[in-house]
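Dig into what follows:
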Amino acid sequence: MKLCFVNPPFKAEYGKFSRESRSPAITKSGALYYPLWLIYAAAYCEKAGHEVYFLDAPAKQMNEQQSLDAIKQNAQGATLFIYDTSTPSIKSDVAFAERVKELFPGSFALLVGTHPSACAEETLGYSTKIDAVAIGEFDNTVLELANTLQNGGDVQQVRGLCLNTAEGCKRTAPMPAMHELDELPFASQFIAKYLDPRDYFFAAATYPSVQIFTTRGCPFRCNFCVYPQTMHGHAFRARSASNVVAEFEYIAQNFPDVKEVVIEDDTFTANKNRVMEICELLVQKGLNKRLRWLCNARVNLDLETMKAMKKAGCRLIIPGIESGSQDILNNIKKGTKVEQFYSYVENAKKAGLLIHACYMVGNCGETKETMQQTLELALKLNTDTAQFFPLIPYPGTEAYEWARSNGYIELDYTKYCLPDGTHNTVLSLPHLTADEMVDFCNMARKKYYLRPRYILHRLRVGLTDFSDLKRSLKAFGKLKRFLFSKK
C-alpha cells in the first residue's frame, strides 16, 4: 500500500518552521531539525513492504499551494496520509490535511506528534475530515493501521489511536512502547534516499550534519519536557552499541559532506556502560577520525566518561542547566544541584569538550532575583555557547497543567508563535510579566555574547577549527539582528 508522510507547510513566507524542535518555531538562529519521528515511522513502514512518499515542506520552505501540488503529483495511489503536527501549528496542520482530503477523497488522514497525543479528542474536534490521531509513539501504530487498511480490516482494532466516529471520539487499546529499537531502520538511510542534509541546520553542530536518535524514553522527571510526557514515557530504552556504531559507519560511507552527527536523545548519557561501549567501538573502527558528534548530556556525567567521549569524536555536550536557583530546580523536578554545574563544566574543559548550556526562566517560583542568579551563574560557568529562553509549557506536561490551573498561560495555541513564526511567550506570572521575561532573555543573550572575552574566545576557536568558524558565522548571521536590536 502507498503511504504519504507529510511535514506540513507553516508560515513559509517567513522562514523554515522547525516543527520537531522541543519548542517548535522559526528560530532566531535559523535552526531546522529533521522531522525524525516521522522519518522513523516512514522508514519502518517502508521496511515492512509499503510504498512511501515523504514530503518535508519546511525543509524546502514550500508554501501551502506548492506542497499541495507536490502531493498531488507524487502521492497518486496513496490511501493513508500521515501528518506531523505541533502545538503552534495545529490548526493550520488540520486545515492542510483537510485540503489534501479534498484532493484524495476516501483516503485516511492521521495526525501524529506530541500535541494530538496530549489533546486527542480536542484535536479531532477541529474537523470531521480527520479520521484519527495517534497517541504516543506511532511507528507501530502507523504500520498496524496501514496493514489493516490494506487488508480491509477494522480500524477500531488498531492500537494507539483516537478515532473520529459517527458516535464521537473513540480511543482504541494503547500501543505498547517499542523495546527492540534495533528493529528500526537507520534514520540516515532514509535521509540519504529522500532528503538533503544541506536543508537542515543546527546552530551548535558543524554544517551539514545528520541527526539520529539512539534511545527512547527519559528516566528523569523534568516537569516541562514534552516528549517523555506525551510520547515516549520514562522507561529508558536503547539501541545496542553495535547498532549505533553501524549507523555511524553508514553515515561515514554515504554522506561525504557531513562532518558531524547530532545525537538528539533526551539524555544520551543515561547509561554509562552503554556510552563507554559505543565510544570504544567508534575508536576501534576509526570512526572518531572521520565524524564528530554531539549529544544532550546530563550534569551528572563524570570525567572518565567525558574523556572517553572526547577520544571517540565527541566535540560538544548540551546540558539543561535551566536555573541558578536551587529552589527553582527543585520546583521543576530537575533532580540536579547547582554545585554540580561547576564540576561538570570544569571536567568538560579538562576533557576538551565544548558545552552549549541551556537556561530557562519563568518556572514555578521565578522572580527577578532568581533570573539574575541564573545570569550570574551563566557568566561564571562561561560555557562555549548558551541559550536563554522563557518557559513555554506545552499541553501534556506538568508545567502546562501548573500554568493552566493558575491562569498563567495563554490558551490560544496560535499565540505560541508570533505572526512571523518566531517563539512567543505565552506565560505571565503574578510578579513577572511575559515582557519582563523576554526582555531579560534578550539582555542576558547580549551580555553573554557581546563580552570582549567571549568574542576573543570564539575567534581563537575559529582560527584552530575552520568548520567551527563557518558554523559560528552562519549562526551569528541569523542571530545578529536580535543581538543588536534595541527592542
